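[Discussion] Sanity-checking designs against the backbone

I'm trying to build intuition for which residues belong where. Below is a structure token string of 341 positions. I'd appreciate it if someone posts a full sequence so I can compare it with mine line by line.
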């Protein structure tokens, strides 16, 4: 038996409307808090939009009787953000800005064309002074496997120029990025389940698997192993962020298929399996909760204990949404830990 205190997912795409309604149970039942990403159809570019979305999530959580679930909100960084807007956000308890480079991934059309210019530097300065956290999807528009590495220079520039601003490398995927955590006091990271256990071969190695296509793209086995080792170590600069990102099958299969892995249904069981396999169960609590509470200074975590028992079961093959469906990560595969309801 494994008991986890307040699992927290610091990077998740919960979507809106019908998809939100259908996928929220996988997170709201078993996690105490989730950082909801702002790349919706109408991006959450200001406090009001983020608060409306928070209400939508909370309403759905109530319908599920999940009263002990806190959505943590973020604002989509854009050049029109002002100091007043950030003050307003802070009053509403929103302290996270999410930076997408334009075109880097799903829902990044409204992202930054230029990461470092006069306007963005002003925003970073205000964010630093107001104690915001800057979460970054760090990818250049270069060669796919080098995109995160190439973005490293920008991470460095921001870290040096704004030493009090906490910067998060979201979904760290390239082993060459790990040094940044050690070189700069104000750089942190989230790690996904999929980057811990898969490489590019899982996308294209035995026929194309669109359900493993995500951004940043899965990398080499050496990268995977280094990311896994970092997560298993319980390093205090790293917290868990699933980047669970559901897409309808029809959107996965069309031309320019959608990037995103819907991992929410398997997260805690698979993490238990991996941490047990490598004899690191003692570090799982840090990775799944404690580090996030410290890094993001999270308050009012609902106090939820989740127990997993050793029991085999098969992951469902799909989740129906109207006339379409979403395929979860590890569909039809056997898991060995089950969450006790
Ligand atoms: O694979 C991804 N999917 N990566 C992202 O950064 C965004 C996400 C999505 O929203 O589908
Ligand atoms: Zn994401």
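Best answer:
Here's mine. Compare freely.
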């Amino acid at each position: 038996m494994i008991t986890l205190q307040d699992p927290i997912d610091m990077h998740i795409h919960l979507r809106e409307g019908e998809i939100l309604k259908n996928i929220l149970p996988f997170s709201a039942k078993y996690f105490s808090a989730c950082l909801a990403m702002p790349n919706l159809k109408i991006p959450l570019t200001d406090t009001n939009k983020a608060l409306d979305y928070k209400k939508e999530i909370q309403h759905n959580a109530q319908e599920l009787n999940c009263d002990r679930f806190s959505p943590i909100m973020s604002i989509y960084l854009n050049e029109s953000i002002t100091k007043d807007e950030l003050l307003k956000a802070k009053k509403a308890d929103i302290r996270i800005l999410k930076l997408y480079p334009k075109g880097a991934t799903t829902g990044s059309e409204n992202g930054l064309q230029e990461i470092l210019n006069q306007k963005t530097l002003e925003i970073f300065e205000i964010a630093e002074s107001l104690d915001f956290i800057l979460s970054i999807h760090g990818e250049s528009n270069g060669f796919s496997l080098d995109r995160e590495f190439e973005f490293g220079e920008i991470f460095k520039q921001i870290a040096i120029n704004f030493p009090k601003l906490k910067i998060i490398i979201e979904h760290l995927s390239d082993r060459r990025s790990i040094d940044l955590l050690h070189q700069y006091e104000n750089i942190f990271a989230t790690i996904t389940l999929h980057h811990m256990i898969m490489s590019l071969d899982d996308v294209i190695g035995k026929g194309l698997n669109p359900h493993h296509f995500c951004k940043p793209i899965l990398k080499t086995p050496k990268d995977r192993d280094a990311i896994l080792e970092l997560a298993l170590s319980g390093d205090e600069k790293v917290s868990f962020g699933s980047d669970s990102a559901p897409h309808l099958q029809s959107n996965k299969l069309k031309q320019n298929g959608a990037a995103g892995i819907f991992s929410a249904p398997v997260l805690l069981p698979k993490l238990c399996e991996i941490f047990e396999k490598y004899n690191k169960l003692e570090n799982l609590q840090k990775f799944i909760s404690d580090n996030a509470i410290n890094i993001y200074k999270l308050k009012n975590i609902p106090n939820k204990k989740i127990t997993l028992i050793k029991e085999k079961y098969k992951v469902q093959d799909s989740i129906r949404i109207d006339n379409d469906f979403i395929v979860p990560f590890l569909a039809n595969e056997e898991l060995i830990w089950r969450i006790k309801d």
